[in-house]
Design goal:
Pfam families: AMP-binding (PF00501). With about 550 residues, this protein is of the alpha/beta class. It contains 16 helices and 28 strands.
């Protein structure tokens, strides 16, 4: 298998281009040939500035400069470290300092617009005119050498740098590319950040690997006006896009009828959904909302993956559409998936069939493989498995386990296999166990959002009392611009959630934008639990059971 770098360098297509759509400004473009030439220049410059294998922190806004710098790092065989362009203030200093310390990076690259603001980091920008002869980049990389560090989202732990090798990257791009079937992909487009594995591998690098056009937007522009995403798909005839469940839900809610004029989504044959739990309600709503402008439900491609497997593990093939089955709720709560045709069944979305990556489900305690239809920890094996966590051999040994049958990744995710389809049900560390019954926090959060029109994001987690066991706690935001009475709001949500799940729930009502989440939109439930227990949340109203109240430090008070 020819590695990604060698393949792209050998055949950079002059008829394919990368386009960045900047709101209010002219689009910027590079052909693949121009992109390769600029990346070669960066590589030549890096070869004289950083030793081979050295980590280089990349702090770039959305746009084409990041992709040039990233490819230049791969060409020069230095280790790229993509990271979000930091905000000002203490949070910026803290995150960047942690990344610098953890990665060991001694060089920081950014674009010309931000080099002054990042001067305290000795950030540098590449001046192409300083290298008159880009020349040939170094020899093809060894497949076992590290290509880049992919920092995990940190939704359940401190972010770690996953060491993705050149061999890992090449294999995963091949795996993901086969999802499209025999029909070549012509244009890939989307807005996910380049420092997120789905945005980097599933969007930008996949386009280069497939020899397809690439259309990019900034995450900020799409969050502000999601019609920009669909307008780009329509105008540029994009046939492959990727987004988390949040992105499809946000577009459905925020795009009005007046925005649909002139929109044509019939070109879109692959709309990949991943990176967070996939809800059938989101898929149905998106398909129904945009069917009048040509979107087909069969274009939806639910998938499952994580940074430790480079990106994709499984994904629904193009044209098949989502696999959705209903399961009896009582067995599901005790770890068994029993299909049912009853109206009260719990619908779950399949994430595709295992193929190039091996998938097994094991008992989380014993590690023994379980039968189909039994919920357990998802484990993964295959050439896409990363080398480990940078500078953390203990975490690497605990997560990437080697046995008689090879090397397997303990994902920490819960799910089951049925009829060769993978279903993901939750996170092992986040599951709430009430008297032997498993409650998934995302289900509690969804029920709360459905209970009241003013309910925004929520974070559900368990709090343990030594005498009475585990209790469900819900930190629930109000929507922006809504002003219901917090006590009345809390009661409506509590009544609905308690009725649906049949267990007592404690609630803390908070302002909009209180729930912490990762750069890819995952709720940081562990962090929210810590803030709640420490009394560090400004709470508008609380209704806590005595057992939960006894575990909480003196809380902050807030007012509407």
């Amino acid at each position: 298998m020819t590695d990604f770098v060698t393949r792209f360098r050998a055949h950079p297509r002059p008829d394919r281009k990368v386009t960045y759509l900047s709101d209010g400004r002219p689009a910027t473009e590079l052909t693949h040939l121009e992109l390769d030439r600029r990346a070669r220049a960066v590589a030549a410059w890096l070869t004289g500035s950083a030793p081979e294998g050295a980590p280089v922190l990349l702090l770039y806004p959305a746009g084409l400069d990041f992709l040039v710098a990233f490819l230049g790092c791969l060409y020069a065989r230095v280790v790229a470290v993509p990271a979000p362009l930091p905000l000002s203030g203490a949070s910026r200093a803290d995150r960047v300092d942690r990344l610098l310390a953890d990665s060991g990076a001694r060089m920081v690259l950014t674009d010309e617009a931000h080099v002054a603001a990042l001067g305290d980091l000795s950030a540098r920008t590449f001046e192409e005119t300083a290298v008159p002869d880009a020349g040939e980049p170094p020899r093809a990389p060894d497949p076992d050498t590290v290509a880049y560090l992919q920092y995990t989202s940190g939704s359940t732990s401190v972010p770690r740098g996953v060491e993705v090798t050149h061999g890992n990257l090449t294999h995963n791009l091949e795996v993901f590319g086969r999802v499209s079937g025999e029909v070549p992909v012509r244009r890939i487009g989307g807005w996910l950040p380049h420092h997120h594995d789905m945005g980097l591998v599933g969007l930008q690098l996949q386009a280069l690997h497939a020899g397809a056009d690439l259309v990019l937007l900034s995450p900020e522009s799409v969050v502000a006006r999601p019609i920009r995403w669909l307008r780009a798909i329509s105008d540029h005839r994009v046939d492959w896009t990727v987004a988390p469940d949040f992105g499809y839900a946000w577009a459905t809610r925020r795009i009005g009828d007046e925005d649909l004029a002139g929109l044509d989504l019939s070109c879109l044959t692959m709309a990949v959904s991943g990176a967070e739990p996939i809800r059938i309600a989101t898929l149905d709503a998106f398909a129904d909302r945009f069917a009048p402008v040509g979107f087909r439900r069969t274009a939806l491609n639910p998938g499952y993956g994580l940074a430790e497997s480079t990106l994709v593990v499984t994904c629904t093939s193009r044209g098949r559409g989502p696999t959705v089955r209903a399961f009896a709720p009582a067995p599901l709560a005790t770890g068994r998936a029993v299909p049912t045709s009853d109206a009260g069944g719990v619908p779950l979305v399949g994430c595709g069939e295992p193929g190039d990556m091996a998938v097994r489900i094991v008992d989380p305690v014993t590690g023994s493989e379980v039968d189909d239809g039994t919920i357990g920890e998802i484990r993964v094996a295959g050439p896409s498995l990363a080398a480990g966590y940078h500078g953390d051999p203990a975490a690497t040994r605990a997560t990437f386990v080697t046995g008689p049958d090879g090397r397997w990744l303990r994902t920490g995710d819960l799910g089951f296999l049925l009829d060769n389809q993978l279903y993901v049900t939750g996170r092992l560390k986040e599951i709430i166990i009430i008297r032997g019954r498993n409650l998934y926090p995302q289900d509690v959060e969804h029920a709360a959002r459905e209970a009241h029109p003013d309910a925004g994001r929520g974070a559900a987690f368990g709090v343990r009392d030594e005498e009475s066991g585990e209790h469900v706690v819900l930190v629930q935001e109000l929507r922006r611009a809504s002003r219901p009475d917090p006590a009345d709001f809390a009661q409506v949500v509590l009544d609905a959630v308690t009725k649906q799940f049949g267990v007592p729930v404690s609630i803390a009502v908070v302002r909009p934008n209180t729930i912490r989440h990762t750069t890819s939109g995952k709720v940081r439930r562990g962090h929210m639990r810590e803030l709640f227990l420490s009394g560090g949340l400004p709470i508008l109203h609380r209704a806590l059971s005595p057992a939960v109240a006894a575990t909480v430090a003196a809380p902050e008070e807030s007012h509407v």
